[in-house]
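Let us practice reading a record.
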Amino acid sequence: RFDSDSGAPNKEWVRKMAQDECGSHMMEALVEVLPASEVQGLVEAMRGNFVQLSRQRTANHVVQRLLERVEELPQVRLILQELGGHIAELLQWNRPGVVRSLADMIARTKEGQSDLIKAIAKALNLSAPQEHPRLVPALLLLQHVPEDYSTVAGGVSSLIGSLLLQTLVTYEEEHMTPLLKSFAAITPEYLARIACDNSGSRALEAFLASSTVPLKAKTKVTERLSEVIVKVASDRCGSHVIENAYRAANVEKKKALVEALAKEYKVLQKSHFGAMVCKRCRVDQFVSAAADWEATEERAVKK
């Protein structure tokens, strides 16, 4: 419904439909097919009500679909102004999907990257620099974690926490300092738990595949994974993490990783996933002819 005078979506109608059990589904479908030129009108119709709508059970899904469509910086800034200071409340209200959609919007537009990471850290009660080493474990669980987070009962990752982290590691390097500091601080044992977790492994894969994460940061994680190579490489999820670490490394670091695999070659061959990792990292060739393996890798880099 549009206002006859302005030609823009009627604000009252938009808010009412977004909060309606059936109307919200129609609104979600409408947002997905709305021409880009009309997205601004819908953002304006929700102006001043993003927090309220994000809290509401049905309307929060409409907000998420809208955030997926927003591209223009004025709209992005308006939304960040309204929602950016309410990350803690969104998590408290069990609306992590809104936070994730907000993070995705920022990833597309590159607006407010540092501010969002700081806001998330604050929401998890980890805003002080000395608390940043706990940020990644807390993000994966979407809850505050104690200094010895390895003692937290249960799993190491939630689905939405992993998806959120997968987006955050694509941010520009200068905005990721707290995250990079946290990845570097995770112990090999806890890193293995993340790597062997269905959701956590995806976050590690995204970290290793990210074009904005510096090689030095990836190397630190890979070196720690090498310390628990049998456990990780033999696991259904962990094996993919090792393969991603291999692909992300330069020749020197690839060699170090393959050396770690070669030392446990006999043990890894007894596991289906361990054997697959050895095959894809060409451990056989390395063991029989290390010079040829290195030459092949050097040629691959030059292509």
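A brief commentary: The chain has 22 helices and no strands.
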